[in-house]
Amino acid sequence: METFPEKIPVAVFLAALMPGPTFSANTIYTETCNAVVPELDNRVIYDNGPENPPTTLILELVLLRKRYRSVRRVYIIAVESKGLTKEFQRWMIENNPPDEVEEISGSDHMVMMSKPEQLLTTLLRIANSYI
Questions:
Q1: 127 CB contacts (<8 Å, ≥6 apart)?
Q2: CB distance 92 to 17 below 8 Å
Q3: Which residues are CB-contacts of 18 (< 8 A; sequence separation ≥ 6)?
Q4: How far, CA to CA in Å, does 60 sit from each of 40, 44, 74, 131?
Q5: What is the pLDDT along the chain (131 residues), one digit of tens a residue?
Q6: In Å, how far are 17, 24, 32, 37, 62 from 40, measured between CA atoms?
Q7: pTM of the entire structure?
Q8: From which domain of life does this come (predicted)?
Q9: Domains of the chain (ranges plus CATH)?
Q10: Residue 85, CA distances (Å) to 16, 21, 35, 42, 94 in order
């Protein structure tokens, strides 16, 4: 998204991982292992052996340091998520603060299924304030 910031008024992270140039995917992954339900389908490659940090995650993250934060960011906390606990989501926010934080009470990790009307209202409010 940092490649074309003029085309993206705001990025919304909904109960999602939110890395940054000084907040690496490896750091997030290590914390995720402690916070995420272990049954989730996590694919990690350990080229240097299982006793060393992972070398590859499912997604390749490319963050352009010089343009990082050129797109405003909003994080929506799914309060009752069992996939990413509220505490884990708060930890990510504290370590890589977005421009704004919203919470949807009573929502599980699939907010669009558990609280669709509240999600719609929140997304509309965000869109109207950044466009």
A1: 10
A2: yes
A3: 73, 75, 92, 93, 96, 98
A4: 19, 11, 22, 29
A5: 777 888 989 989 898 888 777 777 677 767 766 554 444 445 667 788 878 776 665 544 455 567 777 889 999 999 999 888 899 899 999 989 999 999 999 999 899 999 999 999 999 999 999 98
A6: 14, 21, 11, 6, 24
A7: 0.70
A8: Eukaryota
A9: 5-130 (3.40.50.1820)
A10: 11, 23, 7, 16, 14
Backbone angles phi, psi at 28, to 5 degrees: -65, -45
Contacts of 8 (CB under 8 A, 6+ apart): 1, 71
Which helix (H) or strand (E) is 73 found in, with range?
strand 72-78
